[in-house]
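User
Class, as today's exercise, I want you to study this protein, comparing sequence with structure tokens, and judge whether sequence predicts the tokens.
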Amino acid sequence: MASSKKRRNKNTEISELDAEIMAADDQPAPLPTWYKAVMFGLLIVGLLWIMVFYLAPGGQLPIPGIGGWNIITGFGLAMVGFIMMTRWR
């Protein structure tokens, strides 16, 4: 005669799952040093770009030919730095 499966205790399932999670050592590897340098460099360069644009007479610097697009360039550089910051460990 066929026998039915025994019911598992929920506490046993949770403890087995916890044991598997704790045993898994899937920590991401640390980022290389150059990543941090590039990230902070882009943040600082973007900030300086915007500051130079606002402090220059008539907004002619850092690149005179693009005019108001200088601010977009500065924010773009800073945004790339912020996006890189999301992966920083």
